[in-house]
Amino acid sequence: MSKKDKEKKAPVTEKAPEAEKAVEEPKEAPAEEAPKEEAPKEEPKESELEKAQKAQAAEHDQYLRLAAEYDNFRKRSRKEKEALYTDVKVETVAKFLPVYDNLERALANETSDEAYKKGVELIMAEFKKIMSGLGVEEFGEAGDAFDPNAHNAVMHIENEELGENVIAQVFQKGFRIGEKVIRHAVVQVAN
């Protein structure tokens, strides 16, 4: 071989290691990229985990809201049942109030028959006992303070002996269950 051929071969051989390095470098680069590829594979796993945690948190939140809604529904239903019971009781008692009024009128009338009077008194006593057993309270006495929420003023009188906004006379008793008025008392108010 001639020198030229050797020189040609020599630079080729010298270039060959550089070429090998160049070839090796891309091999190293993919080797470096491989861990980067693994990291993104881990990130999706973390993001999948985060997604699962978020989904679980959303489901848990939805469950808590549903439980609170059910609890509120149960409480509201209980209150509605109690209110319905009170409303039905009020309506029923209101239908018996004319009987009460008639018994009061019968007691107010003078009679010579003592047995008749005693019978009406016993009926009225039993009627009042049943009403109090149902939680019905009677209100509207002369001398009480006038309350527009509980009393119906049909007359007004000037009387210096009575104070201002005081009930002077009761024409019809009022009834209530708790705070709910069944019938307003019909009264005459002084001053």
Explain how this protein is built.
There is one protein chain. It contains 2 helices and 6 strands, in the order ααββββββ. The chain is an alpha+beta fold. The chain has a domain at 135-191: Nucleotide Exchange Factor Grpe, Chain A, domain 2 (Roll). Strand 4 and strand 5 (180-183) form a beta hairpin. The chain is elongated. The N and C termini lie far apart (144 Å).
Write the layout of secondary structure elements.
Blueprint (H helix, E strand, L loop, with lengths): L2 H106 L5 H20 L2 E4 L11 E7 L8 E7 L1 E4 L2 E4 L1 E6 L1
Parallel strand pairs: 2-6
Antiparallel strand pairs: 1-4, 3-6, 4-5
Ends distance: 144 Å
- Indicate the percent of residues in helices: 55-70%
Name given to the CATH homologous superfamily of the domain at 135-191: Head domain of nucleotide exchange factor GrpE
Order of helices and strands: HHEEEEEE
- Class based on secondary structure composition and strand pairing: alpha+beta
Shape: elongated
pLDDT average, as an integer?
84
* Alpha carbon gyration radius: 49 Å
The low-confidence runs, each spanning 5 or more residues with pLDDT under 50, are 12-16, 19-23, 25-29
**CATH fold naming of the domain at 135-191:** Nucleotide Exchange Factor Grpe, Chain A, domain 2
What is the total tally of β strands? 6
CATH level-two architecture of the domain at 135-191? Roll
Give the CATH class of the domain at 135-191. Mainly Beta
**Main sheet: which strands, in order across?**
1-4-5
